[in-house]
Design a protein that fits this description.
The protein is built from no helices and five strands. With about 60 residues, the protein is mainly β. The chain starts with about 20 loop residues before the first strand and ends with a strand.
């Protein structure tokens, strides 16, 4: 058997962005309630009143 390489777990960052930091992202899809969904640095961001394909600035 080959030895399994285990990596140390990633540190969890509970707050990915500073308070009121403005981010720019592309909306990938919609939720079942109509909010836009995008991803930044592995975090999922929900933006209401947006459509897939839009580039939005969100806070």
């Amino acid at each position: 058997m080959r030895p399994t390489m285990q990596r140390p777990p990633k540190k969890f960052v509970p707050v990915p962005f500073a308070y009121h930091q403005e981010i720019e992202m592309t909306v990938d899809s919609l939720t079942n309630l109509g909010s836009g969904i995008g991803r930044i640095d592995g975090w999922v961001v929900f933006v209401p009143f947006s459509l897939p394909g839009e580039v939005v600035k969100a806070r």
